[in-house]
Amino acid sequence: YPSYPALTAQHLVLTESIIDAATLQQYANLPQSTSVLACYGTNGFTQEHAEAASQLPEIREIIIFFDGDTAGRKAAKKLADQLKQQLPKVIIRVIDTPEGEDINSLWTNNEDASIFETLLKEARPTIESINIPELNIIASKVVTPIQKSITKTSNEEKESFPQLGETEKGASQLLLKVKGQVKNTGDTLKVTLQTTAPLTKEMLIQKLDLYDYTNLEKHAKVASKTLDIDTGEILKEWQIFALSLEKQTASKKEEKQYILDQATKNRCLEFLRSDNLLQRINEAIGQTGIVGESDNRLLIFLIATSYYSDSPLHGLIQGSSGSGKTKLLQSIYKLLPKETFKSFTRVTESSFYNYAEYALCHKLLCFEDLDGLEEKALLALRELQSSGKLDSSTAQKLESGRITSGENSVKGPIASLACTTKADVYEDNISRCFVIAVDESARQTADIINYQNQVAAGLIDLNQIQKTRVFIQNCTRVLLPLQVVNPFATKIQLPQNIHKLR
Q1: How far apart are CA 62 and CA 88, in angstroms?
Q2: Strand order through the sheet with 203-209
Q3: In angstroms, rounded to a whole number, what is the distance separating the alpha carbons of residues 93 and 464?
Q4: Of 118, 182, 300, 484, which has the highest C-beta tally within 10 A?
Q5: Looking at the predicted structure, is the pLDDT value of residue 278 above 90?
Q6: Closest CA to 416 of 266, 264, 312
Q7: pLDDT digit string (tens) for 219-243?
């Protein structure tokens, strides 16, 4: 799949799966001299693949584009060694796929075809394939423009840092490598650190707080016995390493905004300054595949984009099972920049209280099924909606082992959108939200099925949908929170007989 490579192919890209090959073919804008060939998994480069590659008279290089996980990297290295023996005159290059990603997920998450151009251009050659002074680029990590621009702070993400012992001046005795993620809260710098003695290759993995010198001394004594290196030397190198990590984590925290080029920014501003803006926005939303729901989709989008204001809005989408309410929610939050929203299918009782202080500040929180949230999680959500913060008293264990009280604070404000199948929702939840009923009419059902049929028949330009979605995302990126004055506010009166007038 997708076919035997063209005999005129000068470049061949090998992917780990069929869906990855299809994604590259559809979105990567590859030159005519480049062919794509799918392997069937990490060990799926067959004899037939090998024969197809060897029969290309004009082939100059083969690029291996496997998944960014341990299995993918191991398989890519193995395949590169195999191809170097089979095709010694062909340059073999390996793409350093971002951690946890594959070709299809890169497109789905970033929706920017230039990411493939960047990765293909910066694929690293294998050592045997080059004999030029540019050898020092082999160990460099490919960082996509989107990764450079967006700060990621999820607790689930893992960061990798250089092995400072190999490169830092004065750090000649140890090889240091971070396992997992670095937690820098300002007064603590917690890491799981692998310390290796370069001569004996003895290795020790320890959980350290590199700012806690007293505790660090205890760990250094343990490491000294295991690695047979002086305690003072270990402490010295750990301190140097701490300064390096401090700079890297600080620079990551400073990168908070997605940087738009001026041409893109000008197009967005021109659109946002146009007449009948809400009508034009609604039409653009419709072009992203949301069928009907004209009033609802605009209202939900306006609620979603209020995340950066001082008083964000909240919405609750009601509908029966299978009515399309979750699809509507997903379609709207995907119109926002990925760094501005968080989507949940389940929330545990205390999870909101355990976020970093500003992790939820000015974010849109989306809940695909509000009915699945536990009561304590709903209580925390209501507090974030109303007061814009969570302050809790917790028990903390000191280094001495003594238990003491402490305070934890999670700052908002937040905007929120949620779905529910319940017709009657708990009053404290519903009083904070705009309640939006999904259109479940027979006409709307017919329109949805007709659209699905057009997609299946290839009559809908999916590439144009992605472009429109990215344009709307960029438009929201140039918005700024401003104070709004409504000169008609004193002219508005609510009906006196409504429930909970205040």
Answers
A1: 11
A2: 175-184, 189-196, 203-209
A3: 32
A4: 300
A5: yes
A6: 312
A7: 999 988 888 888 888 888 888 888 8
CA 32 – CA 486 distance, rounded (Å): 57
Q: What is residue 197's DSSP assignment?
A: -
Q: What's the mean per-residue pLDDT of the chain?
A: 81
Q: What is the mean pLDDT of residues 198-225?
A: 87
Largest Cα–Cα separation, the chain: 84
Do 26 and 458 contact (CB within 8 A), yes or no?
no
Contact present, 63 and 123 (Cβ < 8 Å): yes
Q: Mutual orientation of helices 277-286 and 294-304 as an angle, nearest 10°?
A: 110
User: Can the peptide bond before residue 98 be classed as cis, meaning omega within 30 degrees of 0?
Assistant: no
Cis amide linkage into residue 2, ω under 30° from 0: yes
Contact status, residue 409 vs residue 389, Cβ threshold 8 Å: yes
Residue 191 contacts residue 210 (beta carbons within 8 Å): yes
Pick left, alpha or beta for residue 173 (phi over 0 → left; psi -120 to 50 → alpha; otherwise beta).
Answer: alpha
Closest CA to 245 of 164, 306, 187: 164
Q: Say what the pLDDT of residue 79 is.
A: 93
SS3 label, residue 301: helix
What whole-number distance in Å separates Cα of residue 413 and Cα of residue 397? 30
pLDDT tens for 113-129 read: 778 888 888 777 754 33
Angle among Cα 264, 267, 273 to the nearest 5 degrees reads: 140
Q: Note the residue count of the chain.
A: 502
Residues 452, 290 contacting (CB under 8 angstroms): no
SS3 letters across 6-52: CCCCCEEEEECCHHHHHHHHHHCCCCCCEEEEECCCCCCCCHHHHHH
Do 212 and 223 form a contact (C-beta atoms < 8 A)? no
Other residues' Cβ atoms within 10 Å of the Cβ of residue 112: 19
Which pTM was predicted? 0.53
pLDDT of residue 99: 84
CA dist 337 and 268 (Å) reads 14
Please state, in angstroms and rounded to a whole number, the distance separating the CA atoms of residues 181 and 22.
Answer: 33
136 DSSP assignment: G
